[in-house]
Design brief:
single chain; 236 residues; mainly alpha
């Protein structure tokens, strides 16, 4: 006995819900690249949910292929290709040498998301469509626009509006006493004048972003990145 119409409808709703969550998750990952537990948790969510949705889309496509609209088939194909490149990036890493795979993964995901929006609008124009189905295109389009433009705005903001804490500020004159060096006697670097923006030792998560080293030590970073040693980095 094959799946009923109700089963197909429930599966379609679950697919859309999962895809909406993945859109929000992808937008956050594209906007912020930070060595935090929350960010790493979102990477795991992206991988896990992406794999589940890829398998679910394959099952849905196989069961309903003949009755599906061409636009939905093309959207699903683009998303599955994106998932394939995502698996490649997951296996071999998002290093500079594999940046092409990451970019292809993103491009096909965007194309598939836009084609899915076209398909939803086409379905909403059919006769007998309920009010809830007619509101879905507007909701999905709003979510898609936010998901696409939020990373662009966030990246632009962080690139051109840097925080003062990103700059080194030297004192205008030397201290009169030893206690005036750096952050004073309570500093872990005292009596050195060395100091940090956190008024203490450098947080461990700062060193989890290996690309930070390339700002000052590009030659050493390139040698390290092309060797097997980079596999020991948490952020490889």
């Amino acid at each position: 006995m094959g799946p009923t119409t109700g089963d197909k409808t429930r599966l379609a709703k679950l697919l859309m819900l999962g895809f909406f969550i993945l859109l929000i998750n992808s937008s956050y990952l594209a906007a912020y690249a930070e060595p935090s537990i929350f960010y790493m948790s979102n990477i795991l969510l992206h991988i896990g949910l992406g794999l589940v949705l890829a398998i679910a889309f394959l099952i849905y496509l196989a069961r309903n292929f003949k009755g599906l609209h061409l636009t939905f088939k093309l959207a699903t194909l683009a998303l599955l290709i994106s998932a394939g490149f995502g698996i490649y990036v997951m296996k071999y890493g998002a290093m500079r040498a594999n940046r092409w795979a990451l970019q292809t993964h993103i491009i096909f995901a965007v194309v598939g998301s836009i084609l899915l929006a076209v398909h939803i609008y086409e379905r909403a124009r059919r006769p007998g469509t309920s009010h809830r189905q007619r509101t879905l295109p507007r909701a999905y389009t709003a979510l898609l626009v936010v998901a696409l433009f939020f990373p662009v705005v966030a990246i632009g903001y962080h690139r051109y509006d840097r925080s003062p804490k990103d700059y080194i500020v030297n004192p205008p004159s030397p201290p009169l006493t030893m206690e005036g060096e750096g952050d004073g006697p309570n500093s872990p670097f005292f009596p050195s004048s060395a100091t940090t923006n956190v008024k203490g030792i450098i947080p461990a998560n700062f060193f989890m972003t290996s690309d930070m080293c390339a700002r000052c030590h590009k030659d050493i970073y390139d040698q390290w990145n092309s060797s097997a040693h980079h596999f020991s980095s948490f952020n490889n």
